[in-house]
Amino acid sequence: MNSQRSVRLEVTPAFIFCMLLSAAISGLVAYSYFFPPTSTAREVPVSCESNLEGIARAIHCYQTTHGELPPHEVLHNGHKHGWRAAIADFLTGESSVWKSGYDFGASWDSDSNRSSMRSFSPFFNCTEENTALGYPYTSFVMLLRRSADNTFISPNELRPKAVLIVESSDSRIETGEPRDLKVADLFDGNGPFGPGRLNSRHEYHVNAMCVDGSVINIPKTISENELKKLLAGE
């Protein structure tokens, strides 16, 4: 006569934890199967500061590749292109499938180039702006300085702590457009802050990036004299 042995399963907190962990892992595996992650979802920045940090990394990669910081305008086959177009493919990394497809042989405002740069709107805007794919404008612009002979000073000639990129909400500058913000326009008597100037959705500050890649806050209450020193990296 065969004897049957009864086994009593003891439900302990450790057992419950293991069961829940197993269920969670199974759920994640199933989710990743039916909804595979895309590279774009992983790479889109999540804050205004992280956008600028990403731009700083892209500018550094451009500098490593070309031996200099990107100019505000890139000339190619008689066409002017903006610095944002020049660094676009450095924003997402070599392994990313997210590439701009930007054609430097065509004008910046060709239909294809406009479409290409609009796909990078999440990278070239503060996250408090409209960052939807296809949004045509940018809120990050380069500060332009003129030399004594009235030509624009290269970013390579600036001090490491000089401010290079600033927020300029409502600038109405398209992402691929070779147009930026002149420092002289900030001190023309109309005040340095406001639409088309230093401007942001943040209550107390405007974010900015220096030549050395550091990201700083510019207080909206700063005096014009102090602002001039800050922008110059003094």
Describe the structure.
Helix 3 (48-66) crosses helix 4 (83-91). The chain contains 7 helices and 7 strands. The chain is α+β, with helices and mostly antiparallel strands. Residues 1-9 and 14-44 have low confidence and may be disordered. The protein starts with 12 loop residues before the first helix and ends with a helix. The chain has helices at 13-34, 39-43, 48-66, 83-91, 111-118, 183-186, 224-232, and strands spanning 73-76, 79-82, 140-144, 163-167, 181-182, 205-210, 215-219. It has one domain. The strands form 2 sheets. Strands 5-3-4-6-7 form a 5-stranded mixed β-sheet. A two-stranded antiparallel sheet has the order 1-2.
How is the topology of this model organized?
Layout: H1 13-34, H2 39-43, H3 48-66, E1 73-76, E2 79-82, H4 83-91, H5 111-118, E3 140-144, E4 163-167, E5 181-182, H6 183-186, E6 205-210, E7 215-219, H7 224-232
Parallel strand pairs: 3-5
Antiparallel strand pairs: 1-2, 3-4, 4-6, 6-7
Helix pairs in contact: 3-4
